[in-house]
Write a structure and sequence with these properties.
- The protein has about 375 residues and is an alpha/beta fold.
- It has two domains: about 5-270, 3-Layer(aba) Sandwich (Carbamate kinase), CATH 3.40.1160.10; about 280-374, PUA domain (Archaeosine Trna-guanine Transglycosylase, Chain: A, domain 4, Roll), CATH 2.30.130.
- Helices cover about 40% and strands about 15% of the residues.
- Strands 3-4-2-1-5-7-8-6 form an eight-stranded mixed β-sheet, sandwiched between helices.
- A hairpin with a 5-residue loop joins β11 (about 320-325) and β12 (about 330-335).
- The longest helix has 24 residues, at about 75-95.
- The chain is globular, with a radius of gyration of 21 Å.
- Mean pLDDT is about 85; it is low at about 145-150 and about 210-215.
Length: about 375
């Protein structure tokens, strides 16, 4: 899945609700104006930009005069509907002042779990960019349901970055980046500038939930970073209200925490990225230590002999999560067996599997060409 040359250098910028509201219940329009000025600077330098924005529900509550976050889904979705109109109007007005068109794109996971829908979303975004517009993307909270929700816009931004083959994904947060400990509780906490691998130590530093007005936290940002490391796309988490931060990060200045390595999936491996980031896992297979090592370090397929246990009900061709013995998700891939058959063949070598499932002769549990390793 190649990306046209004119979109090389593409930057995806994600803003959280707490950044947009400065921790209040009100959208800061002057902040959006400053952001759009930075976007215009990058555009004039030749870098296409996509904005992934949160804040619709907060904007809607303000517009509808609702002071507290609603607890029922219909009211939440009504706030999102009203807020989408507010946000789009602000972005469109500020970008128009700088001679740039704005295109709103609302997505749910349902729109991208289907391969055709994934490609349609990609083509729409690329066409907007080709026409000179800045796509402003948000989750379509007015119709999304839990099983098809992204959960937070950090992952939505990661999926948009992957499907467009972005050169950089930046998350504008209300913190400087990832710290060794919670800086609000530990004066000795230090900012981590560069991360190449997300191990248990890095994951533990992510901490807990986000602000009162947002849905994400550092945990969700590190989860998105893990996906971007797998995709080979650099991700930077930084303080969104730092002066000129978007331009500085795009220019490669040392700002925030940068997640990057040289071992990710090539941008051309679109199917792997779709499997690992867009699809909803229908079950989980737990593998032994040898299989985990072979998947992560040797680029191997998952063989039935390495499967220790199977959870969930899934059909052949469904996407499943792959976990190691500690319960850490190390990969996602397309199962070559149903959950019933996977339970029958787990722990067995292929020559034994072929004796009672001859149609599965030489068939791995998950082939490496259909496996995204995190």
């Amino acid at each position: 899945m190649s990306i046209p040359e004119q979109f090389e250098g593409l930057v995806v910028v994600k803003l959280g609700t707490s950044t947009l509201t400065k921790g209040t219940q009100t959208i800061d329009q002057s902040y959006i104006s400053d952001l759009c000025e930075q976007v215009a600077t990058l555009r004039h330098e030749g870098a296409p930009v996509v904005i992934v924005t949160s804040g619709a529900a907060a904007a809607g509550r303000e517009r509808l005069g609702i002071k507290q976050r609603p607890s029922d889904i219909p009211t939440l979705q009504a706030c999102a509907a009203a807020g989408q109109a507010v946000l789009t109007e602000i972005y469109a007005t500020e970008l128009a002042k700088r001679g740039i068109a704005c295109g709103q794109v609302l997505l749910t996971r349902r729109d991208v779990v289907d391969r055709e829908g994934y490609l349609n979303a990609r083509n729409t975004l690329l066409r907007l960019l080709d026409l000179g517009a800045v796509p402003v993307v948000n989750e379509n909270d007015t119709v999304s349901v839990s099983e098809f929700a992204f959960g937070d816009n950090d992952m939505l931004g990661a999926i948009v970055s992957a499907l467009l083959g972005a050169s950089l994904y930046m998350i504008l947060s209300d913190v400087e980046g990832l710290y060794t400990a919670n800086p609000n509780e530990d004066d000795s906490a230090e900012l981590i500038h560069d991360v190449e691998v997300i191990d248990e130590r890095i994951a533990a530093m992510a901490g807990g939930a986000g602000s009162a007005v947002g849905t994400g936290g550092m945990t969700s940002k590190v989860r998105a970073a893990r996906s971007m490391l797998a995709a080979g796309i650099p991700l930077v988490i930084c303080q969104g209200r730092r002066a000129n931060v978007v331009v500085d990060v795009a220019h490669g200045k040392r700002v925030g925490t940068r997640f990057a390595n040289e071992t990710g999936v090539a941008h051309g491996s679109g199917r792997k990225l779709w499997i690992g980031l867009a699809e909803v896992p229908q079950g989980t297979v737990t593998v032994d230590e040898g299989a985990a090592r072979a998947l992560v370090h040797e680029g191997a397929s998952l063989l039935p002999v390495g499967v220790r246990s199977v959870n969930g009900n899934f059909a052949e061709g469904d996407v499943v999560s792959v976990e190691d013995g500690r319960g850490v998700e190390i990969a996602r891939g397309v199962a070559r067996y149903s959950s019933d058959d996977m339970n029958r063949v787990r722990g067995l070598k292929l020559d034994i599997v072929a004796r009672f499932l001859p149609q599965k002769k030489d068939q791995p549990a998950i082939h490496r060409d259909e496996l995204l390793v995190f």
